[in-house]
Amino acid sequence: MRIFSSLVAATIAALIGHTLAVPIIVHPGSANNLVITSHDTISEAKSTSKPAAAHSAAESEELSISVYNNFNSDRVNVYVTGLDSNGEIVLLTPGGNWYTPPRNSEATVPEQITEGIAIPIGAYGTTTSITLPTYVSSGRVWVADGELSFFTVLAATGVLSLVEPSAVDPYDPSADVNWGFVELTTDSRGITVNLSYVDFIGLPLGIEVQGSDGTQTALGVTTNALSSICDALTAQSYSDGRPWSELCMIDNSGNILRVISPYNYINLFPTAFDSYWMDYVSQSWSMYETTTLTFDTQTSAGLVDCTVQDGVFNCAGDNRGYSQPAARDIFGCNDGPFAIEATDNDVHRAIVPRLCAAINRSTLLLSGGNMQPSLDASCYYTISPTNYYTKIVHQYEADGKGYAFPYDDVTPDGAPNASGLLYDPNPTLLTITVGGPMS
């Protein structure tokens, strides 16, 4: 992988007369440095007192996984995590059995899993077969150029949680490892497997499912996508002075490890992008004081008309309105006016993704933007400000598939969406390609 020089970027920025944000350098720590959030943990569905155990392959149906190494490294490892049918945390061992971490009643601080759970795959150009012995929910297949560290922690309520590597925390014990994952759930209804860049882009991965619905693929980002994306983000930082280039994370040698989303960057630096969307949102809310914005809910609610009154977007049949969102609200689509509450009705649940998608893609002020969604992908990200992370990520996806913000699948009826999700009711093989699509 090409090396990105922070020193060179900073020197060039000084020469042209302004300070350019540079990539974040990671400094991996120990268990004491873990910042535990809901994004980096998976918790058992219920509290149990069962000791560590290996599960029999006869308990449920198996899933065959084929891992093809298209990455020029001979130290690639696979890890599989999830919940079994009893709601317990399980991790796959190289022998093909599930390992259930023990429940140490004193483990109120994270304890590292020392059981052998790294599954090495073959060298460049080879294929390695892995079998999941039973159904698994909330599953992840992790692929790493090196070794990852997993921990367990016991809550005061007795619920055991698996603390997973964080893509965002620069002090995470696995911070200097290049890794990625695909998410999957298998059950009697089949397999659902997902490729997403909503949180970050790491080691390039692609997925293919073979089954009764034929062959489905999501190719993922290209082989050299990380360096290309960081180059493009750096160019955007030069253009508008925003910290796009700081979305890139590098090691001490300048090797690019991953690119995090603006939402996660704001979680690290809360004031970042503070005023980025302010003028655009203000203009949009002003425009729709005198113009009707219509949403096609693509549900039984049909077309819903909205206008701004007293600074709040109000929509017919919606149980509540939408105040002007901040940058964090827009990039994440789940905070501020875009947070969905249990009491929200179906109209509200349909408007949130469509309004947030329109802002991320900067289509509200375009000709035809008063109907959402209606414009095709050629109109997305065509004016500033816009979500340049999403725009640039899609430029380096081999087939345009893979979410880059939470509602990236919002499209007009009949149009292709950017989802990296595959489903088959009777899967026979899941293939994961490591290192970018095969040429």
TrEMBL record:
Keyword Cell membrane carried by entry: no
Annotated keywords: Signal
Residues in GH64 domain copies: 60-436
Signal peptide: 1-21
Domain of life: Eukaryota
UniProt cross-references to PANTHER family, sorted A to Z: GLUCANASE B, PTHR38165
Entry protein name: GH64 domain-containing protein
Organism the protein comes from: Penicillium canariense
